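Sample intake — Secretion-regulating guanine nucleotide exchange factor
Collected from: Pteropus alecto
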Amino acid sequence: MEREASAAEAAGAEAALFAWGANSYGQLGLGHKEDVLLPQQLSDFCEPGRVRRITGGGGHSAVVTDGGSLFVCGLNKDGQLGLGHTEDVLYFTPCKSLLGCPIQQVACGWDFTIILTENGQVLSCGSNSFGQLGVPHGPRRCMAPQAIEFLREKVVSIAAGLRHALVATASGLVFQWGTGLASSGRRLCPGQILPLFWTAKEPSRVTGLENSKAVCVVAGAGHSASVTDAGELYVWGSNKHRQLASQAAFLPMPQKIEAHYFQNEKVTAVWSGWTHLVAQTETGKVFTWGRADYGQLGRKLESCEDWTREKQGSSLPCSRPQKSTPSSLQCLTGATEVGNDVT
């Protein structure tokens, strides 16, 4: 969570953290494993007004404070909480092995975690079944955060998907690793040789971005995206729900989403859910696109027929909703971020 204190907070209003939703593994940090339908306030494991980021994975959650402390809870069968054991944790607990090492950002994949320190180093823990930890010769799982040695340049942004991860460096390069999407890529791109970053178990430079400088990366279950310093948005990977604004089922190389989709404005921020994307432009306009059958886009599909087709999950291009390109949500123009995880 990244935001500036509001006037009310400056005047002394008390901040508080609330959680609700699925809770099968205790990922809400409320001390139990029952699903929660209405917001419940969390105990003050840290000063709520000092929370910088909140993010979640397949069954685990992480909080980073302004002071760089990392708190985690939830599913931990592969050591994704980085606590040195594999027991689930029902309350937000400090990652003691990182005390004295201020954290800038955390990205939670399905069963692994990527951690960015304030000095630009990247750590990882959890499942490594698909090379998603970026440590090619490491064990199948790691219970404590370990450095990804192959990243020798300072990193400024990290992201984690279902079974892949990526980073942007200070010089604007993008590196990706994790083999979870390789089989889908081969199946959906017959006859093509996939770039090396789809089959790498260590950070591999994403080709196709040589003429741009990335400042931010995000990931969904099967896709990746980056924003450049020129306000351009590039996307690649699975396009099952048209979250890449393309007709192709899979984009093996980064492809720019043309500016006209964003009313010819520069993109200044992007967020990714599991199968949809949200972008904000320089004048504050907010655009959404991708999967929409649970209301993720904040707008209705074109018709009931489109809704039915999306629910059926067909992968045939002719059966996908036709209005899956970025569309503006006027009610959110000028909105500010209150959390960095869009699900």
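Post-analysis note: Helices lie at 7-10, 182-188, 304-312.
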